[in-house]
Amino acid sequence: MTRAGASAEPHVHPTRDDAVLAGWSASVGGPVGTRAGRHPWWSPVRVLLALTAVVLAVGMLQKAPCWEDSWTEESYAAMCYSDLPYLYTGRGFAELAWPWTDDAVVRERYEVMEYPVGIGYAAWAAAAVTHLVTGRPDLDARAAVAPAYAEVLAEVRAFVVVHALLFAVCALLATWFLARVHRRRPWDAAGFAAAPTLALTGLVNWDLLAVVLVAAALWAWARGRPVLTGVLVGLGTATKLYPLFLLGGVLVLCWRRRRWRELAVVVGAATAAWVVANLPAYLSGPAQWQVFWSFNADRGPDLGSLWLVVAQAGDLAISPSVLNDVSTAGFGLWCLGVLVLGLRAPLDPRLAQLGFLVVAGFLLVNKVYSPQYVLWLLPLAVLARPRWRDLLVWQAGEVFYFAMVWWYLGGVLEPGGGGDAGAYWVAIVVRVLAQLWLVGVVTRDVLRPAHDPVVEERSGPQLTTTRSNVVVV
């Protein structure tokens, strides 16, 4: 359903719906007219998929300097760093070592993969494909001496290419799912497809594996499939922790509607999927499986976090245990605030809005905020606040930080007379302020739904609530 009196057009045209796009369209004839025809093949979803492919290609070009020198020099200054090539040898994938093996010889030579199991599975599979396309190296010979990075540069490049193709599929699927969450608003996914941060950070780490699962979970919830929603959340949590926070949004929505059975189904499916996904890794090496959890617990103030600014600017030594307690308490209070906001909202919030607010809070109080973590928010943000002005403000802060963090790591920002890089602290604060801007407008939309651009019928487990002549879910 739409606002009373609205036309039954097949979808909302972005140049008539968004003031920024309407202004930009003036250079090509203005917003689409009421008599505009539809192309027989170029549907909105196909256009969005093509746009995603172009953005991903631009991202690969941006990584060209590191490709040329195989990530051996100046990867920070050229802003093309990626974790992928270094872990090919650093975690034993050059030998196709199982990430959680408890083999004493392997563990003596290689560190345990410090990521959740979904990433470990994907990296191991990518290594197997790498070996296949590079001529099946003699793994028995490698078992005698761990190969040095410089000795397998051709495989390192192939390993990155395999991942780039995998991540491209993930990004395209994420666009497809996001474009289909709201039947009349496929163009909202353009904020994801055209995001500069997708091009800049997509290849830094494995985050796109979780992003596509979050996008799919939003789609499944919008289609009224609680079991599938839970399975996707569980698989996402087995890949990166943050998809778990979508359950907070589901809790709020089910609480408002007193649909406790729906909540139990989603949580139960998520738990079962997470357990099944983790079981092979846990059974092959329980101690190695636990490394992810201990690794994160032992970290101190790290890149991108406000805690790093506090520690460096105040010359403070903040222990990991204290930081864990404070950040956990801060996140708990944030979640309580989102719960109260969601329950007191005049109309049912949308899952993307609640999910965005919870994940944003986690990143703001977390002790590490890596540059690629912007991808965690991206699919949620474009649906939570599909307005280009606000998305551009947020993306500008992220792009600014992206440049500054690599210059910081490369030593470019170090003062000539020595001392701390205060410019990097400024970049962290700018990034946080840009994120808080988006948090603010999403919060306003929840409290005052008249500001929310998305007003339509939503099916599935989401209950329709009617106020005046507007139908909002």
TrEMBL record:
The keyword Cytoplasm does not apply. It holds the Pfam family GT87. It is a multi-pass membrane protein. One of its GO terms (cellular component) is plasma membrane. Keywords: Cell membrane, Membrane, Transferase, Transmembrane, Transmembrane helix. The keyword Membrane applies. The chain crosses the membrane at residues 117-136, 156-179, 191-221, 227-251, 263-283, 351-370, 391-409, 421-442. Its main location: membrane. One of its GO terms (molecular function) is hexosyltransferase activity. It is found in: Cell membrane. It comes from the Bacteria. Belongs to the glycosyltransferase 87 family. This is Putative membrane protein. It comes from Nocardioides perillae.
